[in-house]
Write a structure and sequence with these properties.
The complex is a heterodimer of chains A (339) and B (337). By secondary structure, chain A is an alpha/beta fold. Chain A has helices at residues 11-25, 49-53, 65-77, 96-103, 106-109, 139-144, 156-168, 225-239, 257-267, 282-291, 316-322, 326-338, and strands at residues 8-9, 29-33, 58-60, 81-88, 119-124, 149-151, 173-178, 195-196, 210-213, 218-222, 244-248, 251-253, 270-277, 303-307. The radius of gyration of chain A is 20 Å and the shape is globular. Chain B is α/β, with parallel strands linked by helices and 337 residues long. Chain B starts with 13 loop residues before the first helix and ends in a 23-residue tail after the last helix. Classes of the chains: A alpha/beta (339), B alpha/beta (337). Bound molecules: thiamine diphosphate (TPP) and magnesium ion.
Chain lengths: 339, 337
């Protein structure tokens, strides 16, 4: 169906548009990363920027993450507003010190004298048989460490607004985009991510979750790709007369606990869907937000549909078995009701 | 086609040349087959082919002795075949099957062989370099006279950990050959766009490590350089750097259309510098082999590769119980934290 004036963008294009619009009004912004300039990024999310802004502001870097991410922290403290990409979240190990000890702590350790206004963007997720050094989400890893905000869009509208908000934010923001939502030809893309995206600049508030679908019987909380699994499950549950509410966290840090609590207070049931490893992560945190606050709202023990605690295997059968999907969400609901 | 100097009857035996021809051709055909299987959806993820770079591993393996070790990046199929790993096991890992070297858990980028002293393909750029020093350290400690070939790319040469490793390897006189496979591109980045000084073989100078540049399209030149490097390491003089100039014909991975370079550039390399054609010419002009002999080899290789593809398709999918094995050295831990 074609809606007049509809402007459907992929997340990748929405990100690039947000960056371009901010760059036009803020000279302090520059973008750097591996293959982000001439190639336009592995996922196309910096495409077109080099042509418009030139190589001084859109910089390809050597494969020297410790150096260029550390340099971004320095430049940010010196009043610049770097947007930095490292194409897979799995690769951050090599430069993690600059991130969690410097980027995330220098505001605090300078007693607020220095700010670190940078955006660190990276892709997450698997599902296409790329094994355990190229398929992780690591949401919990970043969200666990205080001092950096963490956002994760599930669709192009949010992707653009979050990018603009992240670039204007004076705190470091880790911007995590799921590969299956990007709209890359070589990678299957969830169609629900490609949505109407206004041309003018706008922000989506960091720290505010969204009710992606309203319902009465169960709350399904997720982020990124998981939101689409949740919406899909909700549609199937509806056919069985079950009304599921879907919460898109949008932002992991700050975490909008109020929206989660309000929803579960209404539905009495909670399922958390997370493509990151199960233990010590987002799913546990979301559940704790509810149970610590008021356990009496729960009609059943909460459930998690998350990646098991195993390194992500290559073999398709194994990986697909581990990934969250709508069927697992429905099964979780049924188990919850049977209990 | 531009004639090459090396084509003028060098001082090598027919047998030796035939071995190189066979080994390089095996890699070439294996990779072509892997590309086909990828196209058919039998191989997933990113699959990084080694086509064009065959002379590097074949030349260096000719300089290695039994027990020497090797470790490399994700572009690892050629290294595995060259050190004698079973094409069936490699191909079956590419298709993610039980019969693969990592039982389907690792895939294209992550395979190992204790028997062939192959310490892995690694997915994180540069990460294997310190590991290579560690292998060499263990050998030096044990006093077993072994040498480790630590391979990495021109792009990886810009990782800081490479230089930490250079320093330590030189400080401790570790028997490690650092092999920089300079195929001139790191994904879409031409080497000259990412390095302040393009001569990678000089990068060890600050640490007192000798290095040299080698024509990586000439298997004999690679072998000769390898022998020199290995001799240096084995005699207790510490590490050695070989910057091997080579070229990858295909995209960075199967999903890369390689728009950052011209077709002509690739075509020129293929036509003028192909490492397999080079040996082929030497064999023919030196009358070491006839067209028929070479055809017979082609056929033999075709069969090995075809069999590996059959094996890789017919090997069973891994059992799901295997998900929970090998996470820790001890017993499986399903669901446990
Ligand atoms: C730490 C890290 N950064 C970035 C990447 C993404 N990446 C994979 S391969 C590659 C290019 C490496 O080029 P080079 O070292 O020349 O090896 P080649 O692919 O040419 O064999 C990049 C940037 C990665 N895997 N790990
Ligand atoms: Mg390279």
């Amino acid at each position: 169906m074609n809606v007049p004036n509809e402007r459907k963008l992929t997340i990748a294009r929405a990100m690039a548009e947000a960056v371009a619009q901010e760059m036009r009004v803020d000279d302090g912004v520059f973008v750097m990363g591996e293959d982000i300039a001439a190639l336009g990024g592995v996922y196309g999310n910096t495409r077109g920027l080099l042509d418009e802004f030139g190589s001084e502001r859109i910089r390809d870097t050597p494969i020297s993450e410790t150096a260029f991410i550390g340099a971004a922290v320095g430049a940010a403290q010196d009043g610049m507003r770097p947007v930095v990409e490292l194409m897979f979240v799995d690769f951050f190990g090599v430069c993690f010190d600059a991130i969690y000890n410097l980027m995330a702590k220098n505001t605090y350790f300078s007693g607020g004298n220095f700010k670190v206004p940078m955006v660190l963007m990276t892709s997450t997720g698997g599902g296409y048989s790329d094994a355990g050094q190229h398929s992780q989400c690591l949401y919990g890893t970043f969200a666990h460490l205080p001092g950096m905000k963490v956002v994760c869009p599930s669709n192009a509208y949010d992707a653009k607004g979050l990018m603009t908000a992240a670039m204007r934010d004076d705190s470091p923001v880790v911007y995590m985009y799921h590969k299956s939502l990007q709209g890359m030809g070589w990678l299957a893309t969830e169609p629900g991510a490609t949505v109407h995206t206004p041309e003018e600049s706008y922000t989506v508030e960091i720290g505010k979750a969204k009710v992606a679908r309203e319902g009465r019987d169960v709350t399904i909380v997720s982020v990124g790709m998981g939101v689409h699994h949740a919406l899909n499950a909700a549609a199937q549950l509806e056919a069985d007369g079950v009304s599921a509410e879907v919460i898109d966290l949008v932002s992991l840090v700050p975490l909008d606990r109020d929206t989660i609590r309000a929803s579960v207070a209404k539905t009495g049931r909670l399922i958390v869907v997370d493509e990151d490893y199960m233990s010590y992560g987002v799913s546990g945190e979301v559940i704790a937000s509810v149970t610590e606050h008021d356990i009496s709202v729960l009609k059943a023990a909460p459930k998690r549909v998350a990646y098991p605690d195993v390194p992500i295997p290559y073999a398709r059968v194994m990986e697909q078995f581990c990934l969250p999907n709508p069927e697992k969400i429905i099964a979780a609901y049924q188990e919850m009701n049977a209990a | 086609m531009a004639a090459r100097k090396a084509a003028a009857a060098p001082n090598v035996s027919a047998e030796e040349l035939l071995t190189y021809y066979r080994d390089m051709l095996l890699i070439r055909r294996f990779e072509e087959k892997a590309g086909q299987l990828y196209g058919m959806g039998l191989i997933g993820g990113f699959c990084h082919l080694y086509i064009g770079q065959e002379a590097v591993v074949v030349g260096l393996e000719a300089a290695a002795e039994e027990g020497d070790k090797r470790i490399t990046s994700y572009r690892d199929h050629g290294h595995m075949l060259a050190c004698g790993m079973d094409p069936n096991g490699v191909m079956a890992e590419l298709t993610g099957r039980e019969g693969g070297y990592s039982k389907g858990k690792g895939g294209s980028m992550h395979m190992f062989s204790r028997e062939k002293h192959f310490y892995g393909g690694h997915g994180i750029v540069g990460a294997q370099v310190p590991l290579g020093a560690g292998l060499a350290f263990a050998d030096k400690y044990k006093g077993n006279g072994r040498v480790t070939f630590t391979y990495f790319g021109d792009g990886a040469a810009n990782q800081g950990q490479v230089y930490e490793t250079f320093n330590m390897a030189a400080l401790w006189d570790l028997p490690v050959v650092f092999v920089i496979e300079n195929n001139q591109y790191a994904m879409g980045t031409a080497q000259k766009r990412s390095t302040s000084t393009p001569e990678l073989y000089t990068r060890g100078a600050a640490f007192g490590i000798k290095g040299e540049i080698v024509d990586g399209m000439d298997v004999l030149a690679v072998k000769a350089a390898g022998e020199k490097a290995v001799k240096h390491c084995r005699s207790g003089k510490g590490p050695y750097i070989l910057e091997i100039k080579t070229y990858r014909y295909r995209g960075h991975s199967m999903s890369d259309p390689a728009k950052y370079r011209t077709r002509e550039e690739v075509q020129k390399m293929r036509e003028e510098r192909d490492p397999i054609d080079h040996v082929r010419e030497m064999l023919l002009t030196g009358k070491h082999a006839s067209e028929e002999d070479l055809k017979a080899i082609d056929k033999e290789i075709k069969k090995i590769v075809g069999d590996s593809a059959d094996f890789a398709r017919n090997s069973p999918e891994p059992a799901l119980e295997e998900l929970w094995t090998d996470i820790y050295a001890d017993a499986p831990t399903e669901g446990a934290v």
